[in-house]
Every structure is written in C-alpha cells, then in structure tokens.
Amino acid sequence: MQIQPKLSDIKKVHACIVPYINRTPVLTCQSIDRMTGSELYFKCENLQKAGAFKGRGAHNVVFSLTDEEAKKGVVTHSSGNHAGALSLAASKRGIPAYIVMPKTAPKVKVTAVKEYAGQITFCEPTLEARESTADRILKETGAVMVHPYDDYRIIAGQATTALELLEDVDQLDMILAPVGGGGLLSGTALSAKAIRPSICVIGCEPEMADDAYRSIQAGHIIPSVNPKTIADGLLTSLCDKTFTIIRDLVDEIVLVSEEAIINAMRITWERMKIIIEPSAAVCLAAILSNKLNVTGKKVGIILSGGNVDLSVFFSYLEKK
Amino acid sequence: MQIQPKLSDIKKVHACIVPYINRTPVLTCQSIDRMTGSELYFKCENLQKAGAFKGRGAHNVVFSLTDEEAKKGVVTHSSGNHAGALSLAASKRGIPAYIVMPKTAPKVKVTAVKEYAGQITFCEPTLEARESTADRILKETGAVMVHPYDDYRIIAGQATTALELLEDVDQLDMILAPVGGGGLLSGTALSAKAIRPSICVIGCEPEMADDAYRSIQAGHIIPSVNPKTIADGLLTSLCDKTFTIIRDLVDEIVLVSEEAIINAMRITWERMKIIIEPSAAVCLAAILSNKLNVTGKKVGIILSGGNVDLSVFFSYLEKK
Q1: What ipTM, to 2 d.p.?
Q2: Domain interval for residue B283
C-alpha cells in the first residue's frame, strides 16, 4: 500500500483481519453521560486481542506478506502495545517476531510480548536508540521491518476501529481518538470522514507529550523530546504519513493534563468496570476537564487499550 | 409470585425489566481458554447497571408494585449490590429506598447507594442486626420490604441472567454461578435446567463462607456464622426458597480458597481487561484451582459484579 488508503481499501483490510481480531463491543454508561451532558459511545479496543487496537494493523501487515517475505520474520520497535500485537500476529503465522522495546516499557507489556513468543531486545527510551537497534536487528536477521505507524498498511488496519464503530452507531457528531505516533488518529480520520463527512474528528494528547498539537500548529513535524507522561503509549512523534492525514482531516487536537488523565481513567474503571490504560483515558479526560464541549452531542470515543500493571493493587489485596 | 417461577414466568419478567437493564455482553478470552483447556463464556453482569446482576431482581419487584404499594417506598438490607440496585430501581420509579447496610460494607457500594439517592442506615454486620434494623424502618415508614433473595420475584429477576446467556451461547455443557444467599444460583438453575435439561449447574462458594455447601450436605439450612472472606457479596446464608431450588436443581457446590479467589480476580482483570469484584471471581477460581474439571467443556460463567474499591490503586498513581 503506497498511497493513502481509501475507504474501499480499509474495508478490504477489515475483511482480511476479521478472522484474527475481536469485533470489540461498543459500551455506553449512563452515569458518565449524565456527568458530561452528552451521549458517549465507547469503542472498547481494551477488549481487543492483546489488549489494544494495535492488533488490527499488525495482523494486516503480517498476513499480507508473501511466504517469501514472511519467512525470516518481522522486526519492530515499540513502547509496548504494537510489540505485543505484532508478536501475536507473527506467532499466528508461525514466524519469528524481533521486538525492540525501551527499557522503561511497562512490565505488563514486556510480559505480553514474551507470552506471544516475541524475542525482545531492550534499548534506551529514545526514538534514535529504538530505530538504530531495530536497524541492526533488521540487518542481522533479514526480517521485515514493521513500523508501529509509519506504514499505510498499519494505518489502514487501525482505521478498521472507526469503521466498526460507525457501522454500529449511527449519526455520531464527533469521534475522539488518542494521538501518539498518529496511526490510530489518522486511521480514524480516514474512515470517519469517508463514511460521514460531517463528523468532527478530534485528537486527544497529553500536555506533557504535545508534539502532535505543536506540529499541527507549526505546519511541520516537531518531534517529541524526552516526553514524560503517565500515558506511556503516547510518547512517539508523528511521521510524514500520519502528519499529512491529521493536518488534512482532523478538526482539532486537544491537550489534557496528567491529573485529568488519571481522573478519567478512574471514572472509567469505577463506572464502566473496564480496565483502560492511561493512554486510552485522554479522550474522556478532554471532555471531563472541559477542554472540549460535547453538550448535547453524540460522541464516539476510542478506548485504545487496557494494558496496565496491576501489581500494586493485587499486592495490597494479597497482604490484606 | 407465590410459587417457584417457571421458564414462562422468567421470560415475562425479562420482558418487564428489559427497558431498565443492560443486555450485558458475553465475553471470551483465548488465553484463559488455553490455561483451562476449555471454552469459557463469561456473562458480564459486572457491566450491568449499578455494576451487578442485582438490578434484574430489584427492577422486577419495584416495577411490579401497584402505585398504592409503591408510594411509601421500599426497604432492604444488603451488603451492597442489592442496595445499589434497589436504590437505582426506586429512583427510576420515583419512590424512596431505605437501605440497611452493615457498617463493614465497602465504601464503593455505600457511595453507589448514595448516588442513587438511597437513604442509608448502618448496622452491625450480622444477619440479625440487619433484619431487626430493617424491621424497625419498615414499621416507621410503611414501605415495602424487598429482601435481597428470599422472594420469588427477585429469584425470577436474577434468573434472566442465565436466560440471556443461554440465548446467546448454544450447547453449554455447564453453567457456574457464585452462591451467597442463593438468589443468583437458584435463578440460574431454574433457567438453565428448563432451557437445557442436560446442562450441569455448579455453585461456587468461598471456603471461608461455606454455609451453602454445608447446608446442602446436611439436607437443611446451616446459617453462616460471622464469615470472613474477601468475597463480600457472599456473606449471606440460604433461605428456604433458595435452599430448595439449589437442593433440587444444582449438581454440585464447589469451595474455593481466598488465594484462589484473588488469583482468579487478577487473571480476569489482566487478561480480560474488565473489573470484577472478588465475589464474581469464585467460579473461575474453582476452575483455575482444579476444584472442577472442565477440560474440553463449553462452560458459561456468570460474572456477578464489578463493584470494587479502587482507591489503593489510584492513590498510588496520583502519588507517582
């Protein structure tokens, strides 16, 4: 896929990955609707296989490789969810997955990669270290690089999330997605604007990792420099492909504080009884902290993932 | 409803409560299936309104009262989830709910009652204190007593959980439900055995609150005496109605340790990304601790609720 995917491409990708992914439920919550004065529809990619939307793009790439391309395996660098998803997809195809992870990656995400038989190499938590380590492994193994978002096959895969949401819920006024590297947000915009041109597409981003916001303001990519946010899935910077789509199709990028992220995560856990990771909480955070007015609106929210280290909670329970 | 509900009664109750409850999703989890060598279908009553199956019975009672009966409100005693559910149902009908709660009830359940405008009176955590306090309020207010399970209208309401599960999943070999007072388990047995006579119905109970197990063994009700278990929804004892149904229709009651409950709860949170309370973890605990052989079987599991106090986890996050 060398050019921006169209809706027909995204539908083909969806048909290709359907055997491997969950059609995740869309949940609603009356008490959160009351708090926000809106109708919110949560697309639960935290309930996706490997706990995040990333499996959509990863399965699309892995299963669109020829046998010849696939046999030496796949390589990637990822702060976590893409790594788990690619390892899972590779294991399903019976090929090796070589994974470069920042040494700061959450333990729960490292464990997931290991469980799906991904072979991990740790590196420093910078984009440069991640890319150079991945390059080295690429040369050593002859495997295929699968970038977490700088790849239209990945973007088209992530776009199937919004495709399903818009199939399941009519007449959405807005759709919100988190933005890190921009794969999910750009895929969301491609699907949503094609299916429903009047829809408003909003990206939500931590203030502490506001590179997408600043890039769109500036009109060119401004990479993230050593961002620190609890939303560990949103540390990466846009690439040309995602920047272009977001610049052209996304209506607004909204920034949220760390406090707002934790609060939105807690409200989701308590009210909806589902586990979302901090990165998945940025959209509700934008609404609850009044960064975005949704009063009277019908809003789709993509809950991107649910991989959280729960050991603090359970060590407390075990001691009790 | 003066006699044991039949399947036709349960279906009528379902039609009556459908406007007020969620048709909760049935989720599956490949990694837990792999661990257990079985196919497990989780009926997610943790995603029910007010976070537990209890809303089914409560709405049935509240909406089957005449206006004359309803106007002075409803009274109950409950360790938590029935209290929240009854408060919610009463608030929807616009009548008062008077709630007697043991002073040891989890804060999150107390908060839920307050949010639904239930009027709480705290008492000692014994059945006797709960009943005598409720009796007093009953006399003072003229409200209608709604027992959490000693009521066929409640049992028929809880029975709609298994009704939906068996509508959604064919050919189940077994169905598992937690047992406290026995409302859910007896309702489950009534629906499941009527729809699919060959199904095996299993009750799961904490070793530390094993009164249902001992009652069935003995052939008469042996009340729980000051039980202490993390499964705070399973502290109550059977009543005649639930004892009789369970004795006649439930194939086995399986006991699980506290450690097994916490482990099953953790695995559910981590793998399925949903929040279940300890009481809801007893069924998976029975399987994972090899108290029940499910190899090769297709098994329905009722996840009864998801009301857990999350403050430990979030105070940790906020401090970070």
Answers
A1: 0.91
A2: 7-52+151-303
